[in-house]
């Protein structure tokens, strides 16, 4: 079965948080034209590559046969969308908080790995057991 390229591109745009109006302007087309193009099952590779460069998404993951050599699109300098009025300030703040939260989670996981390594290397079975129980409890709470 053939992939519906338009739907895949539309999903990538939604996940990126990039506003369709701003994307259409960057592409030099009307917003309605962009929506119409996303309904097409077979989009042109160059069009997909243009969108990918703007939203910073690698469509070669979704379309392995995508010919990236034909990309002649040169991206214009990034516009600050806060000042241009394209981004909702709440959305921007949410993205920033999400970035900080993910960084904290990564640091937390690194710390737990270090503690486990220390417990293993020093044969501190009590600490190791407590860490393992803590991790199991965390996993149980995540499932709830």
Automatic annotation (TrEMBL):
What are the DNA binding HTH domain coordinates in residue numbering?
Answer: 8-40
Q: Can you tell which superkingdom this protein's organism belongs to?
A: Bacteria
* Record-linked SUPFAM superfamilies: Homeodomain-like
Q: Which InterPro entries match?
A: Homeodomain-like_sf, HTH_Fis
Q: Name one Pfam family in it.
A: HTH_8
Q: List the Gene Ontology MF annotations in alphabetical order.
A: sequence-specific DNA binding
Supply the name of the protein.
DNA binding HTH domain-containing protein
Please tell me the species this chain comes from.
Answer: Candidatus Cardinium hertigii
Taxonomy of origin reads: Bacteria, Pseudomonadati, Bacteroidota, Cytophagia, Cytophagales
């Amino acid at each position: 079965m053939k992939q519906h390229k338009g739907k895949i591109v539309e999903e990538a745009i939604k996940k990126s948080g990039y506003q369709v109006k701003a994307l259409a302007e960057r592409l030099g087309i009307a917003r309605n034209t962009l929506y119409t193009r996303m309904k097409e099952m077979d989009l042109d590779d160059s069009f997909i590559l243009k969108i990918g460069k703007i939203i910073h998404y690698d469509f070669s993951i979704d379309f392995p046969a995508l010919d990236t050599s034909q990309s002649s699109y040169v991206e214009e300098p990034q516009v600050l969308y806060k000042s241009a009025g394209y981004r909702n300030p709440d959305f921007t703040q949410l993205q920033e908080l999400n970035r900080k939260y993910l960084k904290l989670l990564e640091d937390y996981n690194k710390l737990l790995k270090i503690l486990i390594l220390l417990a293993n290397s020093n044969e501190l079975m009590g600490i190791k057991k407590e860490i393992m129980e803590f991790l199991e409890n965390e996993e149980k709470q995540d499932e709830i």
